[in-house]
Amino acid sequence: MKRDLFGNRMKTYEHQEAGRRFLPLLPVCARLDGKGFHKLTQGLARPYDTRFVEIMCQTTAYLVKETQACIGYTQSDEISLVWYSDDYKSQTFFDRRIQKMVSVLASMTTAFFNASLPKHLPEKTGALALFDCRVWQVPILTEAANTFLWREYDATKNSISMAARHYYPHEVLYKKTSAEMQEMLWQKGVNWNDYPAFFKRGTFIQKRKVVRAFTAEEIDHLPAKHEAHANPNLLIERSEIQRLAMPPFAKVKNRVEVIFSAAAPEVECEADGENVHHPDPTTCSLTCS
């Protein structure tokens, strides 16, 4: 009995901080950042290294899958996630326990990223990448969507700066605006608009339902009497973690629906103001194992 009283008293202290939870029915946001990545990325291709980008995208896909996040977004060495449920009884990631979310998200990201280094960046094998994590709530879905808009704005600003630093030393670029840096790139014969979208704006990743035929590998593993053996064009519906071919997020008119309902992004046509629907917002699928 005394041991129980002692243990309960210790748990009470712990619970005062470790037991804190976010409010239900409100979106929860998270951002993970690489810690001291300037050392890790030394020697990589500039202004970006597609191998590093691939690790960040695959790590984001892993987090979206394993935590059931509504969407993930990555740019540079950071990852953003959001969770939401309009059901009071529904449990989001770790039932909204703040310290659990912070600690486990940071450890999941660190572990997956480091495990990916030998395959994608073999020269960095043995390096120890670390990620920190912060989580917070916003009052409405629109503000949660604005969190991603904010990060895309930051990605664009960083992209212009990184591209300029590839051609000019730091002292030449000191206090230069993004517009001035783009002009300086132009003087080098470089059009920033020609860079790939993932470098200019980052990458959105989300679980989406797709209708497709079975792959040859899937058919090989199906029971002998399965209809797909006789009809290889048989269609199935599957959920897949996908990278989205997102238009500039500032131009997307249904940002909330895209994030929380996996809707196709709608953008306003600059020529005539019409809403243009993009029925297939995906470019490729990611396999998370």
Automatic annotation (TrEMBL):
Coiled coil: none annotated. This is tRNAHis guanylyltransferase catalytic domain-containing protein. Pfam families: Thg1 (PF04446). It comes from the Bacteria. One of its GO terms (molecular function) is magnesium ion binding. It comes from Vecturithrix granuli. Residues 8-139 form the tRNAHis guanylyltransferase catalytic domain. GO terms for biological process: tRNA modification. InterPro entries: tRNAHis_GuaTrfase_cat, tRNAHis_GuaTrfase_Thg1, tRNAHis_GuaTrfase_Thg1_sf.
